[in-house]
Amino acid sequence: MLAAGATLVAGTTLSGCMSDDSSSNSATNIAIVSSPAGFDDNAFNDLAVQGLQAAQEEHDIEINQVEETEQSNYQSTQSSLAESGEYDLIVLVSYNHTEALTQNATDYPDQNWMLINDHVDEPNVAGYTWANHEMSYLAGVLGGTMTTEDLSHEGNSNSPDNAHIGFVGGVDGSLINAFEESYKAGAEWVNSDITVDVGYIGDYSDTDTASSIASSQYDNGADIIYHAAAAAGQGVFEAAQENSRFAIGVDADQSKTLEQFQDVIIGSAVKYINEGTQEVASAVAEDNFESVSGANTLGLDDEGVDVVIGQAFQDSLPNIVSQNIQDAKDGITSGDIQVPCSASGCN
Fold this sequence. Notes:
347 residues; 37% helix; Rossmann fold; 6-stranded mixed sheet; alpha/beta
């Protein structure tokens, strides 16, 4: 049985042209366990599922989504799935699973695991970490550039005479600290005199607290806020609309995944988590887990992260934005720009 509180969200099957008996014996069974933000976050968790679904289009794969938002239950949720012997791969969304997996990876050595945003040094673990610090640096370049440029859109505007932006994080810890520090560094690369307000929610789901923190930063003079708060980040966008200011999304192009906020989302720092889960799922379906096991870090050099302009602002931002972002990318990949922290966090 799953741990108390864990919810089986969905199971989907793509059986191709096989008969019922054949597909039940040959399908690759994959379970994915959510981060504390849960599924339907329009970001991190949903991207992971999308990658599995893409692999499902090419292979005979069954997917079970297990939503568990209490980190204290991850040990038992993981072990219950592994103990069942039903899954060729168990995907764990977020570093929040690391402590539990450290034990379970050794307790279940024949179980293949994928851990997103961290790694456990065992041969049965594929650890995939995206360069959160690099994409956040680019978000800082975007925010640092636009805070001093005239911008008006559907009643929202900034204060170009005041170089002032903000950051709202989920949990104040090593991983999200890397988003914060790199964002500030990117903004300071553009303007050394910029002010960056910082606030933390304490979790990844409390949109009300996120909105309150963001509103305080807007009241304090910030005109653009970047969030690294998963599902709670919607509260930042709500505050941006209420204060007629702007925001920067995270993980996915949130001007598309949360279209109701496209009028305030000038851009998003994105990481292609979906490509990672698709790669690992396909490798397992092809009986080639060894090709993806170990620690994998994907950054700008691998086209694993980026910053994208919001769909409502594609033609309205000045050329200096694309110039600065490209110059920053070139500096990061060449080594001329040293981005604070690392893909795994600030240690």
